[in-house]
Design a protein that fits this description.
This protein has about 140 residues and is mainly α. About 55% of the residues lie in helices and about 0% in strands. InterPro entries: Pants/Emi1-like (IPR021475).
């Protein structure tokens, strides 16, 4: 359950992202077009992207959010350019805030607090490293 503190953190991160995106996309012409967003959706479904997702997260990529981005882009077509930019930046800022505050594929690793004992293994002249009977603990 989200606490008010969590909500404040989320809103602060959204504001940070909105500022960053406004600098990155200063005019409505700087926004990606709907065809570019659609291409991103299509590239999510290719084998390479699916295998990468399987490796990183242990599951196939869900491309539904990319399709939603395309639909959102199409829904903005009838709006004034500046209003379209505002809504697009708001949506992207919220997405980036969720991504920054959520879990990452890097969360599977545990940070080591002390180095491994007997590592690296000492090199014994004349002995091939892979045939060593020493173990790492």
């Amino acid at each position: 359950m989200a606490t008010p503190q969590d909500d404040k953190v989320f809103l602060r991160v959204v504001e940070d992202e909105e500022r960053r995106l406004k600098v990155l996309h200063p005019t409505p012409e700087d926004l990606p077009g709907c065809m570019s967003v659609f291409d991103t959706y299509l590239s999510c479904n290719v084998l390479n992207s699916q295998v990468k997702s399987l490796y990183r997260y242990g599951e196939m990529a869900s491309c539904a959010h990319k399709l939603d981005d395309f639909k959102f882009c199409m829904s903005l077509k009838s709006l004034a350019p500046e209003r379209r930019r505002e809504l697009w930046i708001q949506r992207q800022a919220e997405w980036w805030a969720h991504r920054r505050l959520g879990k990452s594929s890097e969360d599977v690793w545990e940070v080591r607090t002390e180095p491994l004992k007997n590592f690296p293994l000492p090199v014994i002249p004349g002995q091939h490293p892979s045939s060593s009977s020493q173990s790492i603990s």
